[in-house]
Amino acid sequence: MKTALSTLIPALGIVLSLLVLVSSAFVTGMSGVFDRPESDVAGRTGVACGMVLLAATAISRRFPRLLMIVFLGTGCVFISIEPYYGDSWVFGVASIVLAALVYVRWRQEEEEITP
User: Fold this and answer.
1) What is the rounded CA–CA span in Å between residue 42 and residue 88?
2) Helices (H), the chain
3) Rounded CA gap, 13 and 91, in Å?
4) Roughly how many angstroms between the first and final C-alpha of the chain, as a whole number?
């Protein structure tokens, strides 16, 4: 189970971050077309969160606690921008679920180390 989570979490993190980047870039572009500045800010926030998710996922093997904090933080940010970016709650819930998976993996590693 540990190796499955060790492989699954980075893969899901990369997929999530790429989906966030593409979707947020689309929201940012369309906000200019429809002249909605609040959607522009939400889209830019989504792009920033997507880049942070991608960077944190890249170093996830070395710093699992940092990855858990990043997933929780971006999840909260995505849920908070939901009024301006309707699909962001999906990304927020997915980030929080990934944070829970990172916690489970981290606890499994801690139990293996402790005799």
Assistant:
1) 9
2) 2-34, 37-58, 64-80, 88-113
3) 11
4) 19
Q: What are phi and psi of 114, to 5 degrees?
A: -80, 125
The amino acid that residue 109 corresponds to is E
Tokens 């830019």 correspond to: 44
74 vs 24: CA distance, rounded Å: 13
Cα-trace Rg, the chain: 15
Token pair in block for residue 1: 């189970």
User: Which of 38, 52, 41, 47 has its CA nearest to residue 19?
Assistant: 47
Evaluate if pTM is beyond 0.85: no
Dist. CA 99–CA 84, nearest whole Å: 24
Q: What distance in Å separates the CA atoms of residue 55 and residue 57, rounded to the nearest whole number?
A: 5
**CA-to-CA distance for 98 and 95, rounded, in angstroms?**
5
Q: pLDDT for 5-57, tens place per residue?
A: 777 878 888 888 888 888 888 877 777 777 777 777 777 888 888 888 888 88
